Amino acid sequence: MVEYSRLVAEEITTTLDRAGFESLSPDSFHIDVTDSFQRKLGECRPVRQPDGESGTDQYQIRIARRLFDDTCDSQWRDTVRHEVAHAHVLSTLGQDVQPHGSEWKEAARRAGANPTARYEASDDLLDADYVLACPDGCFERGYLQRTKRIKYPWKYACNECETRLVSYDAGDCPFDLEPGTCYVATLPWETSDDRETPDTSQTAPYLLACPNGCTEWPYQRRTKRIKNPWQYTCPECDTTLVSCDGRDTPTRFDPGSCNVESIPWSEPRIIHACPDGCFSLGYAQHCEETRHPNRYRCGDCNTRTVSYPAGQQPSDLAPGTNYTD
Q: In a 3-state reduction of DSSP, which class is residue 114?
């Protein structure tokens, strides 16, 4: 493994020189050549600094050891360049861009890498809507439905490394995976801590709930979920959720409505969408996505997004246009 790590380090240095990534240096990287990847070829993650410490950004690059078994070394070299391009995008633009979007593709070309997402396909991931995975890369498994494992990944651990699992929408894997976290966009929680005990609901000022009475979640603050309940669905019956004051009865309200007395809206006011119809998401207030849709691209078709007032969709949507101002 030491010899392989040395080869990776040399390729990183060569790639940085070739690409001119001035925000990075060879010392920015921690290298791990691993046998744990069954499907992945490589991975790049930010390395968290200990509390109270500051310094230059650090990144861990992990490369599948099996790539070095090939008689041709082009595959592992391309994988290293691929991951260095990820590090460059993270260091200059942060995590608010598509992992393999236009920014990364440009960086990959500069690095001398094939500018496409690369992995060894697994049949159960080809048509999956959700993914259950080990955050350390030991495995990934696709699911068509939001099963218990997708909803509550913190209840399960990897058989290889015993790390708590994560779940996320297929094609939308976060850069920085926190063990035991559910990243599925339509579920109203991320970790077990988000699911407060039923006793709390008796005193909580706000509720997020299924209008069919399946379940409810108490909140002490007017979070994004309370303000935009239509973005989430019940994990039991798939009905769009509602929000209301803690003293109210959620089953009184229509699905997808915000009924908190101190919030001056009850339904979406602004739509952020793909002009080709791949997705549409409602917001009650302006956010970064609706103010600057030209900065975002659809994860399915890579088209720049648009925003417009709810109920007033223009007939001809020009990619990257804000129709609300």
A: coil
